[in-house]
Every structure is written in structure tokens, then in C-alpha cells.
Amino acid sequence: MSEVGRLGTGQMREALIDTDAITANVRHLKRVTGTEVLSVVKADGYGHGAVRTARAALAGGADRLGVADIGEAVALRRAGIDAPVVAWLHAPGTSFAEAASLGIELGISSVAQLRQAEAAASASQPVRVHLKLETGLGRNGIPPEDYGVVFAEAARLERIGKLRVVGVFSHLSNTSEADDRAALAVFEEGVAAAQALGVRPRLRHLAASHAAIALPEARFDCVRIGIAMYGLSPFDDRTSAELGLRPAMTLRAAVAAVRRVPAGHGVSYGYLHRTGAETTLALIPLGYADGVPRNASSGAAVRIGGQAFPVAGRIAMDQFVVDVGDLPVAVGDEAVLFGDPLLGVPPVEAWARAADTINYEIVTRIGPRVPRREAER
Ligand SMILES: *Cc1c(COP(=O)(O)O)cnc(C)c1O
Questions:
Q1: Is 132 an annotated catalytic residue?
Q2: Strands across the sheet containing 307-312
Q3: Homologous superfamily of 19-231
Q4: Whose CA is nearest to atom 13 of ligand 1?
Q5: Which of 139, 228, 316, 345 is most buried per CB count within 10 Å?
């Protein structure tokens, strides 16, 4: 296990990223699924840093990377990452020329996008695409009534060398096993229709983290792994450790001030908390500008010196307060908001629960003012 180490001198806050954990998580998930792995590094690698996550995932055996926007894929190329990467969410009428020239694969959700891909093909280089099927989620993707037209056209463009259909894919709702199985059946019909019309994609991919773990029939040739690669559970009722995963992000700060106050002292905006007795208040320099949710003001806790202290009063833009009683907490002491619970710190899910959201949202929203630092190896 990597050493967590201390915050640097003069450093106020940081998100420590354990890239070894990401590598180990990918390796573990590849073993569990027995398929190719597409590692999803959109949204700056769910807040962990897209480039470092991509490198760590590839080191763990990821076969391909995935992002939402073409701009995210271009940034990976500019950072020197030449592994296969697919982008699947496009602005209307956007040009695919730059993406095509960089060998970026494109998710295609409509006939219009197929036309844009055709326009981006060069004489020497077909555009590599993954056809996205709508199978029930109600977002983008080719609807079943258009499968025939789109597959026939994709097959034609492939024959004349404009296109290479690398994959056919869809995305599940995780509503229930029955709903996911219904979508899976639509997906299989779509794949069969594609094959009947002459499209023979090497990769059929449907499952994200949830189904990759819980629904083996949805694994096909490749699984798209996001949250689980970061060591977090896609399930409400199963922890990271139960899934054999190690959370990669630790969010922590140095206590910025301590103050001894009498009983009845108000704390933070609106005095939602008043001290019950003489006590010490410690100021933590992280706030909602940094992605610490304001509506986690009651229910969340931080760990300082081996002990957990609940948030006292409102979380503000830049800071919040914890009531540490009579314990000898001092300026500069390390306060950990979340990390790997096996190391004795709160899990990110405690913050997600307090804010009535999911682990995905907490890590993804950690703001730009929080430096990311890679854990020492
Ligand atoms: C974000 C995303 C994923 C990753 O989902 P996780 O639940 O984080 O594994 C997979 N596929 C698509 C299409 C996505 O948009």
C-alpha cells in the first residue's frame, strides 16, 4: 500500500491520488470480467486527473480509454497518450476532422453523425467509430426504428473505406436487473441487425461498472469502467473493500485556526450550531467552492489525529468548522475528509449520504483550487 505521507509545509489542502490503486483496480476488474476494459476518464478522470488516471489504467491492462467530449480525447493525445480512445458526446454539427486526424474513435448516435464522420474521412484513413444504440435509457443513441438505415449506411461507408466500425455499444439504466435485462435484449437484437446488414464490429460493449460486476451476461467483449476503477462502489449496499477495490482519492487539509470558545457560542453562518459547553473549534480550509457540499453541513465528519469530528454549522465557500471538544488539536494538524476506510478515514460515501448524493458526484466536483498530488510510491 502506498504511503499517505504528510501535507507539505505551507500547504492548505490537497486531493492525494493513489495511482497504484487505480492500476490495481483495473487489473482486478479485468480479472473479474475476463473481457477487454475501456477505462472511462471523462470529467478529468472523475476529478482524479485524466492523464494520470489514463496512464495508471493502461499500466493495469486497460485496452482503451473513454471520454464524453472530443476535447477531452484531444487533451489526452496532446499529453502523449496514444492508446485507443473513444469520445461519445458531440455538439450538434461539430467537425470530426481533428479527432479523426488524431485517431480518436467516435461514438455515433445518429445518421447526421454518420455523415459528419464520412466528411472527416481522409483518403488514407477511415474514421473509426462505435455505433451507439438506444436501448431504453432515453438519452442519445440510434433508436431501434433507425437501426436498419444506420447499419446499412455504416456498412456501405465501411466498404468504400470511409469508416471502420470498431464497436457497437449502449448504456444501461441500473434501474433493476429486469430493466437491465430488457435493455440487454434490445441490444442483442441491434447487434444481430447490424451483423445481418454487414456490420461486424469487433467490440460489443454494454456494461459500465455496475453491470460489469453484477450482470455477467452484459459483459460481451468489453466493459466500460469508470467509478470502480477509482476504487468506489457503484452499489448502495456494497463497499469498495467488498468488491476488492481501493479508493484512489484522499481529500485532506491542514487545520487553519483553532479557537477556544465558551458554551453558547454560535458557529458559522446562521449559527446552525451553538456550542454546548466550553470547547475548541477547528477551522478546516475547504468549502463548497472546493466541492465540499454545503448541504452536507449536518451528518458529515472529518478525521483528525485518529478521531472523527462532525461538521459544526454551515459549510461555507472556503471553509468549515469542527467542534473538537477538549482534544489538543493544533493549527497545522491534518484533517482528512475522506479516503480509503481501511486506513481509518471516512469513506467518500459518508459525504455522499450527508449530501443526499452519490460518491460519483463528490469526487467529480472537487474543485480546481484543490491541488492534486500523486501519492509517493
Ligand atoms: C460515464 C460512463 C461510463 C462509466 O460509468 P461508471 O458507472 O462510472 O462505470 C460508461 N459508459 C458511458 C457511456 C458513460 O457515459
A1: no
A2: 257-261, 279-284, 320-325, 307-312, 301-304, 334-338, 249-254, 13-17, 372-374
A3: Alanine racemase (3.20.20.10)
A4: 171
A5: 228
